Amino acid sequence: MFLQISKKIMIRGKKIIYLRNYLVTKIRNRKSLINIGKNKAGCKKYKELSCLNKRTAPKKRREYMETNAGLSGGIYRLCEWIYRLAYINLLWILFTIAGGVVLGIFPATAAMFAVTRKWINGDDGHNIFKIFLQYYKRDFKESNVVGALLTVVGIFIFIDFQLIGSFGGVIKYVLLGSLATVTILYSLVILYIFPVLTQYKNSVYKHFKSALIIGITYPLRTITMFVSVVSVLFICAVIPAISFLYLGSGLSFVIMFFSHHLFHHIEKNIESPNK
């Protein structure tokens, strides 16, 4: 229901902005053409501009509508993102089930992060299903290896927490402190592993190493990301209906948003280390 309403708002907003932009473009072009149409060179330019407008008008209208349409454009972009995130979350669920859950959840998660990364980069691919399927197939093996390692380590951490209760005295607190440190490092890897997997092409070992190093090297950014992730989880817990449409996609967007800017910051520092 909510998704249908968002889609209708997008369509209506599109029509209103289209008409507005059409009129604005007509007025601007007419003024420009009047100024340059007073001589022979101007007449030639007039013909060139007329042909150019016919060829490029649809693309220009869309670009203008998305970037310079004020409040209407903002509403359009908001509805578009609401629709996108809901759709990719449904794809995430669908492909997770298609892979038998166990073999499907990690490739589907990697594909969701990859598509979200393209959106944040400004690449608005229209065939979301095709792009999602492409990344799902490409990263199927690698993401399952990463997921299996994360699962095994997570199980060991859980078992260790259960066993610590059987100890007493000082040794209990020493083990508890050590295990807490391991849990924090494990959480850092979970936060960054899928952004690193989609951003860089390396071995699984280097993916884990990069995720851990980035998490430790940039603690403030990592804490901000963690707080944002907790906020998304809290909203989904308070309003369970949102979870079905936005749990996975909301988390991937938040994590990828912070990671994307952090990766650019790192790459910029590597290119100009002396600045």
How would you characterize the overall build of this protein?
The protein is mainly alpha-helical and 275 residues long. The chain folds into 2 domains: 1-68, no CATH class; 77-275, no CATH class. It has 10 helices and no strands. The protein has helices at residues 2-36, 40-67, 70-98, 105-120, 128-138, 140-164, 170-199, 204-217, 219-238, 240-271. The termini are far apart. The model is unreliable at 36-59 (pLDDT under 50).
Estimated helix fraction = over 70%
* Oligomeric description of these chains: single chain
Strand count, sense and barrel status of the largest sheet are: none
In total, how many beta strands?
0
Whole-number count of domains: 2
The arrangement of helices and strands along the chain is HHHHHHHHHH
What Rg is obtained from the alpha carbons, in whole angstroms?
A: 25 Å
By secondary-structure content and strand pairing, the structural class works out as mainly alpha
Quick summary of this structure?
The protein has 275 residues and is mostly helical. The chain has helices spanning 2-36, 40-67, 70-98, 105-120, 128-138, 140-164, 170-199, 204-217, 219-238, 240-271.
Topology at a glance:
Blueprint: H1 2-36, H2 40-67, H3 70-98, H4 105-120, H5 128-138, H6 140-164, H7 170-199, H8 204-217, H9 219-238, H10 240-271
Notable features of this structure?
275 residues, mainly alpha, 2 domains
